[in-house]
Amino acid sequence: MTVKSSIWLTDEQHAFARALVETGHYASLSAVLQQGVNLLRQRMDAEDVETAALRELLSRRRAGAFVKAEQLDVRLARIVAGKRRAQGIPS
């Protein structure tokens, strides 16, 4: 389902979006804006995944033994990568 909506863009935003349409990158201004909203959602989802991973790491850190910074970096990278894979978010 689609919903018609009225929006306001700055002159610069409108010119950029219009140029994307005119150069054939997108079929319409609506397509440009839809892609922008989708990208924003993906970014926010990725941030949520990273925040959850950090919370989990901090929780484990408080409950566990001391871990050197280098080991912590490796663990954090694994947790974040796993959360991203689970959410279908590219690394």
Structure description:
The protein has 91 residues and is mostly helical. The chain is 73% helix and 0% strand. The chain has three helices and no strands. It has helices spanning 11-22, 29-63, 69-87. Helix 2 packs across helix 3. It is elongated, with a radius of gyration of 20 Å. The two termini are 30 Å apart. 2% of the residues are buried. The mean pLDDT is 93.
**Beta-strand percentage?**
under 5%
Count, helices: 3
* Biggest pleated sheet: none
Distance between the termini: 30 Å
Radius of gyration: 20 Å
Helix and strand string, N-terminal first?
HHH
Shape: elongated
| Secondary-structure content class | mainly alpha
The count of β-strands is: 0
Which consecutive residue ranges, at least 5 long each, have pLDDT under 50?
Answer: none
Mean pLDDT: 93
Helical percent range? over 70%
